[in-house]
Amino acid sequence: MLSxxxxxxxxxxxxxxxxxxxxASLSFDPHxxxxxxxxxxxxxxxxxxxxxxxxxxxxxxxxxRNTMCVIYRLHVTEREKEKMRRIxxxxxxxxHKFLYNILGLIGVxxxxxxxxxxxxxxxxxxxxxxxRSGIKLWDKLPALVTPDDFRENDQLxxxxxxxxxxxx
Length: 168
Known about the structure:
By secondary structure, this protein is an alpha+beta fold. 35% of the residues lie in helices and 25% in strands. The chain has 7 helices and 9 strands; from the N terminus they run βαββββαβαβαβααβα. The chain has a 4-stranded antiparallel β-sheet with strand order 2-1-6-9. The longest helix has 16 residues. The mean pLDDT is 92.
């Protein structure tokens, strides 16, 4: 799922990228009950970021009721799905060790990857999980993948576009 909450921070990113969505999340559930990404750990504090299990009814998304989104489906094998789940388990077990890679966003703008151990931004995280699972959607490092790269990838099947609250 790609989303835009309309916050000041996301509006600044959107102004620079000219892309309609600026946040990427990963889910195995078509109802989006369990989503994973790198973002705000608390809806009220944009400066405290890291690995998050997102909740569209109670978390950051619930605070921003007019969040716009686009949801894509990627067909994968059971083996690839199992690999992704195992990778996510590592992130969940070590949640406290991960940081938000704010410098990585600057690196993307300069087309120069900025990577730190245990540090990701949202689209880098989703691309990394896919990449480690053997799913290659781009010929570039995960640290250079943007939310718009998902939108432009023809391997992803469009499921829904509109207000997130209306998808629920």
